[in-house]
What we know:
The protein is α/β, with parallel strands linked by helices and 256 residues long. It is 47% helix and 15% strand. The chain folds into 2 domains: 8-188 and 224-250, 3-Layer(aba) Sandwich (Rossmann fold), CATH 3.40.50; 194-222, no CATH class. It has helices at residues 17-28, 40-53, 68-82, 105-132, 154-177, 197-202, 206-214, 225-236; strands spanning 8-12, 32-37, 58-62, 87-90, 136-141, 181-188, 247-250. Strands 3-2-1-4-5-6-7 form a 7-stranded parallel sheet, with helices on both faces.
Amino acid sequence: MGRVAGKKVFITGGAQGLGACFGRMLADEGAKVALTDVNFEGANETAAAINETHPGAAFAYHHDVTSKDDWSRSLGEAAEAMGGISVLINNAGIGAAGNIETETYENWRRTQEIDVDAIFVGTQLAMPYLKDNQPGSIINISSVAGLMADGMMLSYNAAKSAVWMMSKSIALHCARAGYDLRCNSVHPVFTRTPIIDPLIDLGGGGDLGEKKLTRQIPLQRLGEPEDVGYCILYLASDESRFVTASEFKIDGGITA
Ligand SMILES: NC(=O)c1ccc[n+]([C@@H]2O[C@H](COP(=O)([O-])OP(=O)(O)OC[C@H]3O[C@@H](n4cnc5c(N)ncnc54)[C@H](O)[C@@H]3O)[C@@H](O)[C@H]2O)c1
């Protein structure tokens, strides 16, 4: 039996990067996974690769997390395909660079819309499915940027810290309501996915750009998607059954 055998996991932003890695690792441990993304082709390719080793374990859906209609449709279709939804991973997100003098209102709004508003809308719509499939787990991907600020990350800092507190509020509501439904946030540091390419470029590109990021991290390397994936496996499984309203820093020590 795998660590998450029988779990039915809905993952946003599942086409590439962290979301794709979570899908692979969860399927390896026995879960069914629905990978959703605005990049349907990418989600579909990732699901097909998973199905090669775990036939029938992965499904792909086109889903823009800023669209309420997309949420309703993809949640319904995924629940039908997997036989319910017991784990929701709010992972889709975008980065944003800009300070209080350079950031545009449009970019601020777009960042809040994808990184924060979508988690409110989607989690609310997912609640009936999660309540029907207890025990359940909601996992929100925040960032170390939700816990510590940078002058150039105005919109991203604001968005990711909102995700941190929102996760606790969701967790407390579920606990008080008597649901066996936990909610936690995960806070990665720079992790090797396409989202950090602009940061590497900003630092001069290639090895130089990467060095500028890693020298801030006590463990002296970038995170790998699997480093975050092991935390997701734990939170999606019943091993974490007494863990709710917590924040998990996968950060090589940077927030110390
Ligand atoms: N990689 C890191 O260094 C790092 C660090 C901290 C937090 N995070 C967070 O992890 C999450 C995953 O990021 P990643 O590193 O895999 O980045 P990524 O850019 O590789 O993947 C993000 C995915 O989200 C999808 N997406 C973007 N907008 C969407 C929308 N409106 N609707 C649906 N899907 C959408 C993209 O198509 C992409 O597949 C994000 O929330 C990000 O903020 C990443």
